[in-house]
Structure formats: structure tokens, C-alpha cells
């Protein structure tokens, strides 16, 4: 449904839809409102569409999947094999490689939006959403574009899909203001070609930090990676299968601790002792750690080889920055030309969703109930894509949410049909 056209019509013909003069327009939406036009928002809108339920997707950026299109580096590929990353109802094209490139993934998402005719309202940032118990509806407030045009949407259902990576985490470091070179978050890093010949300190050793180091190395940069405490590095493939796929398969037969032991044994055999390179492993195994803290193991795509050959240096935590570089906690002082912060992202749900502390934690902006039970709140509130299980978790949530809303939608439609088809109504 083209919401802007419908809105225009309502503005002309119906005083209730555009009830207030001036700044704050108010629009009632018959279907659910989905906040966020990333993979999760698209997945839920598609599952709803398949059931005949229209939805309104609100997206602050001017494109779908803004994380992938605007905030990721050029060399990015899906970290997991494509079969674990496809959205509901539409597989990846068979011609795609096992690990599609970022450009292929974005192409797939664009085709997905076209196929299900999902047309988000771009450039509309949700700044507030709260349940109005008097009318029994969610009130969703947005701000649009530079003119700061404000709107309010009303709906029975609200689906949060703003992602676990909505805002960059930029920690404060002593002396950062004194550092003369650029300090940028990975969300602004595109390619190593602008760092040719430069000494770059990469702070953070997750998948992004490791891949940025590899990219810098491949572009004749001189990266140093900061490993503050510990990290699990696993080969991306083991025994000719993806490590992720193998782990999923093993988990159907064995307890998580046993699978962890097998993974670590194979990793030791394939990669050697990573602690000797300055990359000690956490006390808990990779899968146990993931399920308890959400911390994802690094799937190595070649960075470890560069560390072994000396192309990438490893250092402990940064104590403070200096004018020309950094001092590390082991007392070493080194010079750098630039700093890349691979320090991750966080959810922004607590900034816009009001009075829902029992569903979403204020601390990390994620549902309080652990997977797989964090998708449904009270009074028509849902959450998609906050499972720490990537696109697979988002797809699972999306299907459940659409199924759940369908029950209420059908009941609501029956009521409307009964109302519009009663003899008195017909006679009028
Ligand atoms: C570098 C990187 C690589 C990854 N690789 C993989 C992988 O290989 N496999 C995998 O399964 N997962 C991977 N992930 C995890 C990733 O989070 C998911 O792939 C996916 O992007 C999550 O989709 P999402 O829609 O939940 O969140 P996002 O992609 O973050 O989309 C959320 C959308 O909501 C919008 N938004 C936020 N706040 C507002 C607001 N207030 N109002 C309106 N709109 C708003 C944002 O602009 C954004 O477009 C990766 C993540 C990163 C950072």
C-alpha cells in the first residue's frame, strides 16, 4: 500500500486523520507499525504481507538496510554461510557464493523488498513510542528530514526492528583529544586504500576489527590490533564444512560443553596456540560464551596468518593516547597515524520506546527474556532481531510475530465485517 498517497487522500477528505493543524500530523494505520527497515524489519513486513496484512515500515535512513549500505566496509562478506542468513520466504539465488559479498547481500535485500512490495517511509526517525491505554493504540512519533516535520502514527501493533547495531559504541580514552591523527569508528571505515603506508591502531578484536586489520594489510597499511583481554578465534571452515554449520549439527547430538571441547581441539590443530600470539582464549568455550554473553567468536578469514607473519602486530589494552600515538597497559609507547575503533554497536530502543522496562532492558536495549522468548511483549508490542543470533534469529522472530498478529488481525477483520454487513448498516 502506498502510505503517502493514502495519507494525502485522508488529509483532503477526513478531518480525523489530520486532526491537528500545523506541525503534528496524526495518522491511523490499520496494520502493524514496524520501526526499522533493515533485514529484520523487511522480514517481518514480508511475513505479514504473505498473510494479507499490510504494515507501515518507518526507516530513519534514505535506504533499506542502512547498516549494510552505509556503515560497513567494502570488503565485507557475510560471516556465515548463506543458508543461515536468508530471510523467510525467499532463498538466496543459487548463483551466489557460500559467503555472499556485501553488495550481493544488499542486492538480495532490495529484490526481497520489491518482491513483497515493501516500501518503507524513508527519512523518518522514530523519536518516541508509547501505549495509549485510553484508545488502546500505540502512538508512534516521528521526525522527518531537515525540515523537522513531525508526525504521529497510531496502530494496534508495534514491532521494534531497529537492530542490535543501531548506534556506534565509542568509548572514552584518556588523551584521545590530544591525538593528532584521525580516530574513526568502523562504521565510517570503508577501505584500507586511504591508509597506504600508514600505521593504524585498530582497537577491538571482534570479526570487524580482525577484518579491518586484514584489509589494511592488503592495502599496504601497517595495522596493530588491540586485544584487551581474550578472544576465541576459530577457522571459518573445518573438515570441509563451515564451522558454524558443523557446530549446529554437533549441537543436535552433544551438549554444548562437549561441542566446545571438539571445536577448541580442532582449532588448536588447525590454527595452533593463539595465546602465543597475544590472543589468549576465554575460560568458557566459544558456544557457551556466546549463549551466556552474546560474544561472537571470530571466524578467521586470513587475519591470523598475517599476525603469524608479523604483518599485523598485537598489543594489550590502551592505557592512554598521546599526541603521536598510544601508551599500552604493558608500558610500551608507540606512534600511530590513525586509530580505528572496532568497539561495536548498541541498541537504541530505550531512547524511543517509553515505559517498557519490563520487556526491554534499559541497560543494553535488548529484550529481557532470553532467546527464543524475547519476541513478544504486552498489548501488541513485538521485537524482531534482538536475539544475538544474527539473521537466523531475526527470521525466526519474524515468522512468529506474523503468526501471532494474524490471529488478532483475523478477529479484528471479522468484527469489521460483522459491523459493515449488519442489515441496519446496509440499509443506511
Ligand atoms: C559488520 C557486520 C557483519 C555482520 N555479518 C552477519 C552475518 O554474516 N550473518 C548474520 O546473520 N548477521 C550478521 N551481522 C549481524 C547484523 O546485525 C545482521 O546481519 C542484520 O543487519 C540485523 O538486521 P536488523 O534489521 O535487525 O538491524 P539493522 O541492519 O541494524 O537495521 C535496523 C534499521 O533500523 C533503522 N533505525 C534505527 N533506529 C531507528 C529509529 N529510531 N527510527 C527509524 N529507523 C531506525 C536503522 O537505520 C536500520 O536501517 C553482521 C553485523 C555487522 C555489523
Automatic annotation (TrEMBL):
Question: What Enzyme Commission number(s) does the record list for this chain?
Answer: 1.-.-.-
Question: Which Pfam families would you find in this protein's record?
Answer: FMO-like
Please indicate which superkingdom the organism of origin belongs to: Eukaryota
Q: What is this protein called?
A: Flavin-containing monooxygenase
Example GO biological process term? auxin biosynthetic process
> GO MF terms on file?
flavin adenine dinucleotide binding; indole-3-pyruvate monooxygenase activity; N,N-dimethylaniline monooxygenase activity; NADP binding
Show the catalytic activity: indole-3-pyruvate + NADPH + O2 + H(+) = (indol-3-yl)acetate + CO2 + NADP(+) + H2O
Record's keyword annotation contains Transit peptide: no
Q: Which UniProt keywords apply?
A: FAD, Flavoprotein, Monooxygenase, NADP, Oxidoreductase
The family classification in the record reads: Belongs to the FMO family.
Tell me the cofactors it needs: FAD
